[in-house]
Write a structure and sequence with these properties.
The complex is a heterotrimer of chains A (297), B (332) and C (311). By secondary structure, chain B is of the alpha/beta class. Chain B has helices spanning 50-58, 85-91, 113-125, 129-142, 148-151, 161-173, 191-208, 219-225, 243-248, 253-260; strands at residues 6-19, 22-35, 39-43, 66-69, 72-75, 78-79, 96-99, 179-183, 211-216, 228-233, 236-242, 312-315, 318-320. In chain B, helix 7 (191-208) links the parallel strand 8 and strand 9.
Amino acid sequence: MTALPPMPATDAPEALEEASFLRDTLRAFRRNRMAMVGLAFVLLLVLGAILAPWISPHDPYRVELDEQLLAPSTTYWLGTDNFGRDVLTRILYGARISLVVGIVPSLISLMIGTMMGILSGYLGGKTDFVVMRLADMMIAFPSLLLAMVVMYTLGANLLNIFIALALVGWASVARVVRSQTLALREKEFIEAARANGTARTTIMLRHIFPNVVPTLIVLFTLAIPEAIMWESSLSFLGVGVQPPEASWGLLVAKGKEYMFQAPAVAIAPGVAILLTVLAFNFIGDGLRDALDPSMKD
Amino acid sequence: MTGADIILSVRGLTTEFSGDRGDVRVLDDLSFDVGRGRIVGVVGESGSGKSMTALSLMGLVPQPQGRVSARSITLDGQEISRLGPSAMRRIRGRDIAMVFQEPMTSLNPVRRVWEQVGEPLAIHHGLGRRAIRARVLEMFELVGIPEPKTRLDAYPHQLSGGLRQRAMIAMGLICEPKLLIADEPTTALDVTTQSQILQLMRDLRDRVGTSIILITHDLGIIAEMCDEVNVMYAGQLVEQADVFDLFDRPSHPYTRGLLASIPRATEPRAGRRMPSIPGMVPNLARLPAGCRFNPRCGEAMPVCLQRDPGLMAIGAGHAARCWLHGRNGEGA
Amino acid sequence: MLMFALRRILVSIPVLIGITLILFIMLNVVPGDPIALMMKEHASADVIERVRQQMHLDDPLITRYLSFLWDALHGDLGKSIKLNRPVTDLILKAFPNTLMLAVSAALVSWVVGIPVGILSAVRRDSFLDRFFMGFSLLGVSMPIFWSALLLQYVFAMKLRLLPVSGFYGWQYMILPAIVLGWSSAGVIARLMRSSLLEVMRLDYIRTARAKGLRETGVITRHALKNALIPVVTIMAIQVAGLLSGAVITEAIFSIPGVGRITVNAISSRDMPLLQGAVLFATVLVILGNLVADILYSVLDPRIRAQMRNET
């Protein structure tokens, strides 16, 4: 009676599992309507930003003093600003800055944060203590003030915005990655690798890093809208992108003087920020739900 | 057993879940009775549907994914399978109470124990705080919580696992329910505490006359506690018998497999692997054709791969879902 | 409890010292001369010399840092270059306005965020839930300066219901509080929702249902207190977000608070003032975190027990 034959093996080989994980993820993502709308919007925006010089109806910098603050019309879809420049064109050029500012500093802070988080979580001890106290300090700074101080000392230009935002963003990434590393450390396959005498760097690079990648993807898509917000806030306050460059935050700041005569000048770039941030948030939420259903809600 | 002796009678209990990949039937056409003052066991591996049976009877199946239906469920003669949510709510905690597996997590960590244990009294009988407190104290004495007065105001984390389970039992019994469902009440406890809690439940049955459905994966507990036994596999009942019949004449290969995997203290330990049933409970969304147990069954015949045998009577109060008994139990 | 609070305060001291160091280095060890940064090109040699003296810029860095720290401990954050007044005075004079803005914004965010989050969780996946969650996502995704502008335009310029900007009475606080509170109301609503949903999955909620408790009773008597714990703690941590937001809100509504001091300090390149204002804000954030930790232990008897065992 004890000799019941085993069930036929139905366990799929590992490669198959991985493929089906990817497929499931993609399918879950595709089924998320908001995420797909977000993705479509972002793709359009990227296309618009790249092709801006060719598709924009007007010159973003040319001043037409006899065409100031025009109401929206067929020539100027969103009207003109106080220098007679086409608002739509300025927004399209602003998209270039916003996208770059969204992506570059997020990548930098992601790289720093991942490195710090894995080192901190895997090595533990003093490294962990030092890195985490450093992260505590960065998180204790109100982000906008920290970024403003950086802009004050280094000067207001695009490169320094990258530095300021990367400095603001890495700490929270490091915290998330660290806690994941701590959990992974205890997993059997890491312990097995350790028992086999695999070098620490190899374990961190080959075994831990690939397992935090899904989280990193989510963090990345959610960091982009945040960076866009910070940049527009800095530019709005006059410590970010400087005129005559067309950053969305700057456009709102300049347009607010003419709120009464031509509200579109200030409102339209704000709508651009809102839609872009929403789109990235939709994508990020969709990816999070698809990659890790347990993180839902 | 006459009708008046039966406290709970279940006919055709079926529970389905709708999920991403279609509907899954987690309970398939269960029928069984619980006699007054009896302890009825439900046994099976995890995933066989034991806990879902309890939740279905309690009306606690997660909504709206889960759907429970039955031809009839009568509690002390009253039909309860067609009751709406609010009528069912009035029965829960008053007529049917439940003790859960995890005493550690089944109590609210931020509220005092006595408030939680006494809450059914406030819900069903509208008692005031003072009366509830007095009654909880009585219950604590009944379930053998030492220094009951000082435990009233404790928070759950201040009690040991055994004490929490006693408190859970006190909570279950505080409205003197007609039926207590205990879902693996001792699984999370150490061996000594385990036998104390079982002793307590048997005691209470003898003294208070509570009818109990005891859900467990442990046939040792069944042997020690139960009068009748229902063996479940993959959402179905596969064998029903009184406890002596079950251990003397196990009639389903699955039951025999379970029995064979009980560790025996008398056998020499060294060099012997504990036998267990190979394979695992099948995925309910991808059930094999025919008898659900056929992939793991050492005695499977061609007919087993084609048709489900259905529950067949093989003796007084003894039935098994197996083709081995296909011709009036000759095969046994 | 007191021991715990004391220990938490002790732990945050190194963080505070580290922050002053980072801040000091960022403002003083910059590429180029801090004086040059402050004065740009056009400043007479006398003025530069006077400021150098006043700020002890010729001393070694470590001496300057230590005396900065020592002075700061005594409430002396130096003198504003442009206004020639003690930084501490300027900040303390502005702080009540910022505090009022932050507190009223926080109130707005709780009064809106918590009920919305609870309703969304209770009616999960319903139209109401989707609507509320869409709305909070909108709140989170709107730049503060822009929503401020919109509200100014509609309520002050068009409808003339409220003053556009300035700070001369409570009605001047309404729009700023809504603008600033609105952005964190979304965060709180989402957190409240997910926290409540999380708790509703726990075993003791099933126990409560098994007692025959009504669903509203299950939520109010068993789920809510537990679900509120993370929300309450986020409220204290909210301080950082509110301060960042206050910088922008104060700038737009011309509220003479610490945020506006910071912006002015940057545009007038007044380093001691900037340093003081940022340091002040950071101390507030650390205090907020401290309060969050202590609140957490007050609310959760399990943590409380842990504390007792440790201390």
